[in-house]
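Page 42, continued from yesterday. The earlier attempt failed because a stray header line got pasted into the input along with the sequence. Redoing it now with the clean sequence only.
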Amino acid sequence: MKRLLILAAVAAALVSCGTNRSEVLKVYNWSDYIDESVLPEFEEWYKAQTGEDIKVVYQTFDVNETMLSKIEKGHEDYDVVCPSDYIIERMLNNGLLIPLDFASIPDEINYIELNKSPYIKGIFDEINPDINANDYAVAYMWGTTGIIYNTEKVTPEEAGTWDIIRNPKFSGQILIKDAPRDVYCPVLIYLKQKELKQGTVTMQDLMKDSSDESLAAVEAYLKEVKDGVLGWEADFGKEQMTKGRGVISLNWSGDAVWAIEEAAEVGVSLDYIVPEEGSNFWCDGWVIPKYARNVKAATYFIDFMCRPDIAIRNMDETGYVSANGAMEVLESQIDEEYDPIDLSYFFPGADSVCVNPVLYPDRNVIERCALEHDWGADTDKLLAMWSRVKGENASGMTYVVIFLAVAAIAGAAIYNNSRKKRRHRKNR
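This time it went through. Structure tokens are written below.
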């Protein structure tokens, strides 16, 4: 991170001193969401491919809306940004994205077309029925929302339903993401099981359901749950799980990978499951904003991020799963420790491969998941509901958990000087 800050400062100084803007690429990405060593490599690669110099200005954000505000209201001239799915949809709907011209890249190095997963392409096809998101965005990382659980205190059967967060057996030991969309959607899926089984609604219908009736139902459910919640957390939940302070965490698959690995080192056994009722999945992607000033370099950068070896390095560094469909990416993750699963939906022909199912869900899991959608103006209703639920749960235990989490993070900062941790905060 220190190196990235120095790199950004140097590049920013170059811009302020009158360096040709065509020689500068401004990238805006999530914190801790890239292998920083690929940035200077991109500069060298770009020079080799085009004969032109480029310097990357790399900046980070922690909240989708912060990034969006800078572009939508501030007209910041970022060349490449990496929003989450529903923000991609919002930017697309609001005319804030430039179409991607990958025909300008020579075929032999067009890694996007060479390595596009048919599954991700199909999902992006559905984002907007009138404007194809595949023409404006390239997926970067993806994953699911599910339950991290302590295997010594929770059975797979207990963790296999979203209603576990209401189970009195685990009261006071439940951590829930402070992420309204990623909590609202699973709860609504649970509450609408009858309608889903009858076929009167679909998973996609629920991802777009911002009705007052559904919001009220989810709010009532969460108010039942709240007394048993140990903490509503933005990023400390996985650490609390590794320390045994919580036994259940509603969380993201990438955080689950990190937590399972960290917990194993201190003798705590964790696992992750997508409940049987179904869930939402998320996807972050590269886009070129409306006010970009170096579209050519931005296009090449997105292409470079899709090169299989670069995708693997970014995946290994962050702990999240690349949306790249290259067989080299799959092969890098094969581990005979795991039972074979069906990934043919993502990698054609890969119907029996041994990979970590937390990273790549089996076909029977992903078939009961759906992509979240932007609610437009109705987003304010979701945030208001979330505020009411959380506002009535500021218990003493929550503050204790927050204090312990802050102390743990401070201690971890010292520990991390000798051991890098893979972290990515996806406030949604």
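Notes: The longest strand covers residues 137-150.
Reminder to self: strip header lines before submitting.
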